[in-house]
Amino acid sequence: MHEDVKWLFGLIIVFGLVWYISGGFNNPTSKQPFIQPVLDGTIKVETRGAEVINSDNASAARSYPTYGSYGTAADTVQNQNGASKPTAKSEIAVKLESAGIQAEQIKKELDTLAQKNLSSPLSGKISITNVSRGGTSSSGEYVTLRAASANKDKILLTGLRLESVSSGRSVTIGKGVQMPFQNQINVEQPIYLSPGDTAYIITGQSPLGVSFKLNICTGFFNQFQGFTPSIPSRCPAPRSEPLPPPENQYNDQCIDYINSLPGCQVIIQPPASISPECQRYVTTEISYTKCVNSHKNDKNFYEPDWRVYLNHSDALWKSKREIIHLVDKGGKIIDVVTY
Questions:
Q1: Handedness of CA 88, 91, 96, 97 (dihedral sign)
Q2: Is the dihedral of CA 285, 286, 291, 294 positive or negative?
Q3: pLDDT tens track for 84-131
Q4: How many CB atoms lie within 10 A of CB 294?
Q5: Which of 279, 299, 277, 296 is nearest to 288 (CA)?
Q6: What is the signed CA dihedral for 274, 277, 283, 286, rounded to 10 degrees?
Q7: Could you give the 3-state DSSP secondary structure of residue 281?
Q8: 131 exposure class (CB count in 10 Å sphere: 0-12, 13-18, 19+)
Q9: Phi/psi of residue 323, nearest 5 degrees
Q10: Banded model confidence at residue 310, pLDDT cuts 50, 70, 90
Q11: CA 130 to chain centre
Q12: In the prediction, which pLDDT does 131 show?
């Protein structure tokens, strides 16, 4: 036999004898070769049959927490000083509760953010102050909008929309004229509301054919046309207007007649008792156009009031259980009214 093979068989026999003498399969280390878990500050290690215990009192009895069916510890255990402390199970419960609270807070924040995203930059700058309902027809139906007096700039009204949540109807506010004239073409332009201005968004047709802003002379329109809401009659009185020269051509009877005339009224048929010069004056010099020419540069010429017409023949808004949104061009809500 080769010399190296002899040495190999010899080593195998020696190791076999050592294993047999040490107990073979009955050796405790062959059954429990692993380190036991660390619990409550106690370390128990099995090493080659010797037990090493890390404790201030090596002779003290050792007790370990019991585990449930899912391997979790009891709710509390006692530490070396006898005080209770939370275990893994109670800590998990606390963390789950905390996670639930945080999730609810996140949901509230997302809801708030969603509402902010729906809110228009114009919110608070223009608002719906009233809704007048006229029944099944457009007569007498209008929505009142008002620009806040605290606004620093004008608000572009043209392009904003009124929407019914209940019926789904929607209308876009159009253009208008700053200074309207009868019996002639009025060039429409975008409507702007100055701070404190009011706009009546009227469902029906305009008696003038256009949307318009009121001024101190528009009261003349009331004489031959009806408006809802009505137009104030606040025109300058004829007696306050200067007479054209030569003033001495108007006698006392003429002046008395002029002083008796109300404002905002065109004279169609003056009395025959006054002089021809006086008749000519009251029939040609007292009118909307003459009023505008005389006062258009006055500081208080314009009223803070727009009449905007949607030109619909049927009513747009429900008589009850209605929700109306004022919406900007981006689809964000400016204001809401319910009734």
A1: positive
A2: positive
A3: 555 666 777 776 777 777 667 656 655 555 565 678 999 999 999 999
A4: 14
A5: 296
A6: -100
A7: helix
A8: middle
A9: -130, 120
A10: very high
A11: 19
A12: 96
Please state, in angstroms and as integers, the Cα–Cα distance from residue 330 to each residue in 105, 121, 156, 308, following that order: 29, 10, 13, 21
Q: State the amino acid at position 106 in one-letter form.
A: I
Q: Mark out the alpha helices in the chain (DSSP H runs).
A: 3-21, 28-31, 88-118, 252-260, 276-284, 288-295
- Distance, CA of 74 to CA of 65 (rounded, Å): 7
Residues 165, 131: Cα–Cα separation, whole Å: 15
Residue 81 CB partners (closer than 8 Å, separation 6+): none
- Helix/strand/coil (H, E, C) string of 111-125? HHHHHHHHECCCECC
**Per the structure block, which two tokens stand in for 68?**
């449930």
- Enter the tokens of residue 57: 């009192």
Report angle CA 148, 153, 159 to the nearest 5 degrees.
Answer: 80
Q: Where are the beta strands (DSSP E) in the chain?
A: 44-47, 50-53, 76-78, 84-86, 126-132, 142-147, 155-156, 161-164, 170-172, 192-193, 198-202, 212-215, 302-309, 323-327, 333-338
Whether residue 97 contacts residue 103, with contact meaning beta carbons closer than 8 Å, is answered with no
Residue 26, token pair as written in the block: 């009955």
Q: Which residues pair with 76 in a beta bridge?
A: 86
Q: Tokens in use for 301? A: 């010429």
Q: Which two tokens stand for residue 300?
A: 């208080």
Sign of the torsion formed by the C-alpha atoms of 248, 251, 256 and 262: negative
Identify the band that residue 2 occupies on the pLDDT scale cut at 50, 70 and 90.
Answer: low
**Torsion sign over Cα 53, 59, 60, 61:** positive
Phi, psi of 201 (to 5 degrees): -90, 100
What are the tokens at 334?
Answer: 């400016």
Q: How far apart are CA 238 and CA 295, in angstroms?
A: 13
For the chain, give percent helix, strand, coil, nearest 5. 30, 25, 50
